[in-house]
Amino acid sequence: MPKDRNAVKLRTVRHIRLRKKLSGNAARPRLCVFRSLKHIYAQVIDDTAGNTLAAASSHEAVKPGDGTSKIGAAAAVGKLVAERAKAVGVTTVVFDRGGYKFHGRVKALAEASRAEGIVF
Questions:
Q1: Is the pLDDT of residue 2 over 60?
Q2: What Rg do the C-alpha atoms of the chain give, in angstroms?
Q3: 8-18 pLDDT tens trace
């Protein structure tokens, strides 16, 4: 069932409003979250240079058919992106929730990243 176009438009407006205030730099890049109906994606982005430093998605974090819930998959993505960010030397980030409410899958991803040592 496709999302309502109005809901997508409202999320986009919220995301634009957030992005006016949030920006990542080399010292503190932005941890950006995108949530689709089935999957979740996270990127650590340096906005000044325009580079993606680390990325992870539920496609690679969870094996298909292993019975993991979407919240469990989000936690796995948070752990994976935190490990990859620490591998390139990033320990502090600015969290960009992408216009989504901070609960459910977005919260699980954030808490898993914090548990791995990423500070925000």
A1: no
A2: 14
A3: 899 999 999 99
What are the tens digits of pLDDT across the range 79-102? 999 999 999 999 999 999 999 999
Helix axes 70-87, 105-115, angle to 10 degrees: 40
| Residues 73-103 as b or e (16 or more Cβ within 10 Å = b) | bbbbbbbbbbebbeeeebeebbbbbbbbeee
Q: Which residue has the tokens 């109005």?
A: 6
Domains along the chain with CATH numbers: 5-115 (3.30.420.100)
What pTM was computed for the model?
0.90
Helix (H) or strand (E) holding 70: helix 70-87
The answer to whether the beta carbons of residues 94 and 26 sit under 8 Å apart is no
Closest CA to 105 of 70, 64, 68, 60: 70
